[in-house]
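Annual report, structural modelling task.

Input specification for the MU-OXO-diiron complex:
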Amino acid sequence: MPLIKWRDSYSVGVAKFDLEHKVLVELINNIYSIIRNGDDQVIPEYEVAELISYTQAHFKGEEEAMEACGYEFSEEHKKIHAELEVEVLKFKEQLENFSDRVVSDLYLFLRNWLLNHILEEDMKYRECLNTCEDTRKRNKKISGYRHKTIHQYPFS
Ligand code: FEO
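The model returned the following structure:
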């Protein structure tokens, strides 16, 4: 059973970022499945590194879009991104010292880390970015990538 099921209500109204959020959910669900289904020796190091790398690129893209659109809370949002990056890096360290506690904490950690951020912080830029010419350009750029897998989806 997947950890997180994507819902339309999670949409921030920006196609590029919705797609990236879906990929992040996919990456998190994959990590959860590996840990839940594996034995105690299985540490999804590659998948966690991929999650971190994808998250960093996603945050960078959002920050550029917020700047380009003159979003008034972009600095505050950037600080929150930096804090989330620290949290996920700490989680990575915990995984390296794999324990039952990590597994049991995983649901809450990942849910809070990603979904609360999307629903509470990313939603705040919805109106600003949706009325911005820069967003239209970014959305046009991804239109050809909608059905590609995460490994084929480029950041640019
Ligand atoms: Fe979608 Fe602010 O991260």
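The chain is about 70% helix and 0% strand.
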